[in-house]
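User: Second chain of the day. Same drill as before.
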Amino acid sequence: MRIVFFGSPDYAVPSLRACLDLQDAEVVAIVTQPDRPRGRSDAALPTPVKALALEAGIHPILQPERIRRDTADTLAALHPDIGVVAASGHILPSYLLALFPHRVLNVHASLLPRHRGASAVASAILAGDAETGATIMEVVREVDAGPIVAQRRLPIGPLDTTGTLTGRIADAGAALLGEVLPRWVTGTLTSVPQDGSEATFAPKLTKEDGRIDWSHSAVQIDRAVRAFQPWPSAFTTYQDAPLTVHAAWPLPLAPGTPPGTVVAGDGHPLTPLLPGRAARALVACGEGALALLTIQRPAKRPTPIEAYLNGDRSFIGSRLGA
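Assistant: Same format as last time:
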C-alpha cells in the first residue's frame, strides 16, 4: 500500500504514525503546509507533520501554499495507491483526487454529517453535544460531504475544551484509520453516503468569535470559554482593556443583577469535578452566573482568580464588557 499523507498540525500526527505502523504499507510522500513562524520566535518552524516525516525519513516532503499541477505531477510519478488527509489545510483539486486508485480518505474530527468544516470540535462543544468523535470519509469536492467509511464515538465531558477534546479525537481517529486502511484497500469495507439534510456547518473561527456576550446564559458562555480554548480564547473587556477568561464554571444566580456585573462569591466549593476550587468572583449573565476560575490581563500570565483578587480589590463590583 503506497500512501500519500496530507496533514499539518498536531491533530494529524497520530494519523501519520498509524500509517507508518501499518504492515505492507509505505508512506511515499508528505504534503504539508509551508514552514511558518510560530510562538514567540520569528524563525520559520516546520509543521508537526513535517517534523515527524523528517524523523521517519520520508521523502519527498512537499510544502505548497496551494496544490497545483506540479504537485500532482510529482505525486503521480510515485504511483500512489491511496491518499490520507488529516487537517492538511489544502484544497485538493479533482485532478489530484483522480491520481489515487483507492481514492483519498479523510480523518475528520466530528460525527459527520454533523459539524462539517474547520471548527468541528469547537462547534460540538458550543452546541452542547453530548458526544462527538472521528469520521473516516472519502474526500469529494464538496467540503466534508463524502461517503462515510467508519466512525468512532467519544463523550464530551463538562470540563472538555477544544484542546483536550481534539487530542482525544486525534488518537481515536488514528486508531480507527489503522483498522480501516487495510480493509478499504482490499475491498472488504464499503462507504455509506451522508444524509445531507442532517448536515450542520462549522466555519473557520476568527478572533472576534471569542468576544463574550454577557446577555447569553451562563451555560452558553461556559461552553464558549471551553470551545475557544486554546484559540481564539474567550475574552471581554475590563477597565477599557481585554480580559481573557481561560476557565470558568456556570452557577445559578437570582435575576436582577445586570449582565456583566462582577459580584463576590460565597466561597462554596463549585463541583467535585474541580476539587479545591470555590466561588470567589461571579459574573452575572442573561441567565445564571459564571464563576471565574482563571483569567488573564494584557501582558500578564494566566492567573487563578483567588490570586488575582488579592491584587485588584476593585474587580468585585465592576462591569465587564461595558
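The longest helix spans residues 162-185.

User: Great, on to the next one.
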